[in-house]
Amino acid sequence: RIFKRQMQCRFDIDRLNAPFLAIYDSLIPTEEEKAKQNQLFTLLETLITKEWPEAQLYVYGSCGNSFGVSKSDIDLCLAIDVADDNKSEILLRLADILQSDNLQNVQALTRARVPIVKLMDPVTGISCDICINNVLAVINTKLLRDYANIDARLRQLAFIVKHWAKSRGVNETYQGTLSSYAYVLMCIHFLQQRRPAVLPCLQEMQSTYSVTVENIECAFFDQVDKLRDFGSNNREPIAKLVWAFFNYWAYGHDYANSVISVRTGSILSKREKDWTRRIGNDRHLICIEDPFEISHDLGRVVDKYSIKVLREEFERAAEIMQYDANPCVKLFEPY
Ligand code: 3AT
Ligand code: MG
User: Fold this and answer.
1) For residue range 10-60, what is the model confidence (pLDDT) as tens digits?
2) Contact at 8 Å (CB) between 114 and 61?
3) Is residue 144 included in any domain, yes or no?
4) Which residue pairs, CB below 8 angstroms and at least 24 apart, start in 233-236?
5) Quick check: 269 and 277 in contact, CB under 8 A?
6) Which parts of the sequence belong to the PAP-associated domain (predicted)?
7) Are residues 294 and 180 part of one domain?
8) Residues 243, 191: one domain?
9) Is 121 in the pocket of ligand 1 (CB under 6 A)?
10) Whether the complex's predicted ipTM surpasses the cut of 0.90
11) For residue 284, what pLDDT is reported?
């Protein structure tokens, strides 16, 4: 099954461009929604600065990385000088402050893997999670956003892949499938590997942005305005890319030996990463290297059952793209 021949693209693929772009357009948050998100951010920033003048509030995740669909929750990170042991105290205090300001459903989850405060703003209807000092997530959010600004096709592809994953129930890390973050990295890597390439590898270029967080040097080229023409030699429109993306993950990827790496813009081997065997709960059945925490495999949530589900879904999607009369409907049918 692994090395089934990759398929030739159907001859009428271009007629699918308009429907895919229509789906993409329908998923983009409106300006009004963006304004509401900003309004809530400003409110929270004001409340927080009043209590902790030195602290900084950052947006991360889909509201900051430009891969957020309409009605997304906001992920926020409070950067504050505090020992890990005292995070709970801050979260509980924060919850008090938010509650007094009439924010709703305020909950401090101090025992979660990533401790957070949750809240809902009754004015805008937006829900929000606030964590503490998750600075790497703020930086990887910037990396994703910078990639999105190079070529419009990344955002189109990632929205469609995320929409597919959510519709098909394969965007649930607690059930052993992949996070949205992992899917976006898969899209970036795929576009780096296209020939001609649609995206460059920002971390291999001369760095114009560099910060060190938790002893990890995060450096990359971030003057992406200068790269607006980068993908112009590749004229593949969205339908062809969606087709090729699913074809790659269904029939082209070598699950036994390969690691995809946005950091290097290439495929690495599991052997060189020492990801060849299960260690603890890390099984490395599909390997996606985090761009900064390079010992971190975003596929580590995948187990021997969910890998089967995932690969069958990639194959289903590839078959639909190849043969179905109406892929833009069938692809997103609820599972
Ligand atoms: P949704 O639109 O909410 O589905 P998202 O972009 O907010 O997508 P996630 O909910 O998967 O993505 O994650 C929120 C952010 O947290 C994205 C990324 O900056 C960070 N993040 C998530 N998982 C990891 C991880 N395993 N390692 C490092 N950063 C991560
Ligand atoms: Mg999110």
Assistant:
1) 879 999 999 999 999 999 999 999 999 999 999 999 999 999 999 999 999
2) no
3) no
4) 233/196, 234/194, 234/195, 234/196, 234/197, 234/198, 236/153, 236/194, 236/198
5) no
6) 238-296
7) yes
8) yes
9) no
10) yes
11) 96
